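User: Please look over both lines:
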Amino acid sequence: MKWIAPLLLVAFASATVFFQEEFNADWESRWVNSNWKSDGTQAKFRRSAGNWYVDAEKDQGLQTTEDYRFYGISSKFPAFTNQGKPLVVQYTVKMERNVDCGGGYIKILPDGFDQSTFGGETPYLVMFGPDICGSEKKTHLILSYKGKNFLNTKRFRCETDNLTHQYTAIIFPDNTYQFLIDNQEVSKGTLEEHWDILPKKEIKDPSAKKPDDWVDEPTLPDPEDKKPEGWDDIPELIPDPNASKPEDWEEKDGEWKAPMIPNPEYKGEWRPKMIPNPSYKGPWTAPTIPNPEYVAEPNLHALGTYGGVGIELWQVTSGIIFDNIIVTDSVEEAKAFSEKTFAHRLAGEPDAKKAYDEAEEAKRPKPQETEDEHDHDHEGREDL
């Protein structure tokens, strides 16, 4: 199929591609930088393939340019809903520098949002992608339902190396989801299971009480165990047998007594040994009952009317590159787009990075070369 423009609505059988972007040379005609920060803390993106790549042109993406800056940019597409059909969000991200704190996620925005003020306070329907800050390394898949954002309760891993990785989120019309990295499944399940969007189907019965005869002590004192005779006759402290009265001790000082020290024979307070309790029933928990506040939502997958893609970030470490974004209702279309835009990177980028690293290493002066140059300079100064 011939692609006329990245934002063209393309129908193929029952599949629709609502948005796709490869950031070719005219990308700025489709994207709008916001002005949500007016205090000089917001920076702009640039088109770049980074320091290493497989294809200098195909691997061009949108790169953050300055450290310690906010970023906000967006692109609109014709409004649609995913009522009764899948929603597939897929893109690639390369964290070319070692990120100590920065997001690599994108947002799917509702129809009618304001591109000029798009920023951290702009409502969104989906927020998806990796986020790294210190030891926190995870992938967000935040879903908005009735104006409230819900973070995935199951932790999703993310990639932390310097290579390009492809992130894919699929929400199916049966209210299940699938999350993939580099076309490999990372997680799947139901929206109810891994998001607290709806109240729980069952709750603990608030009226239930622990029975009076419930035994929750796992052990009890052995009734057959008896305290040994003479146990209580052993004192805790005894006079120090190695102590002696000082030579200068006088009768006016009173009767001399040796200082007390811990008795090595003292065993402490006697307690009977513990044995398993034959009446033990385990910890008591209230029985569950149907939650009267729970109402099934067959259309939980349909989050609203989608109208655009946005990238809104805070970057301590810049240099992250976004590329190859697709929003579609077809898993097959997303796979085909991946084969077109990402397969060559998955196969060739490790070698490209290795070659770059080796070239950079070759540029560094060798220790011997430095010493030779120093000796040469020293000899020159002697001649003077």
Notes: The first strand starts at residue 10 and ends at 12. Residues 1-13, 380-384 have pLDDT under 50 and may be disordered.
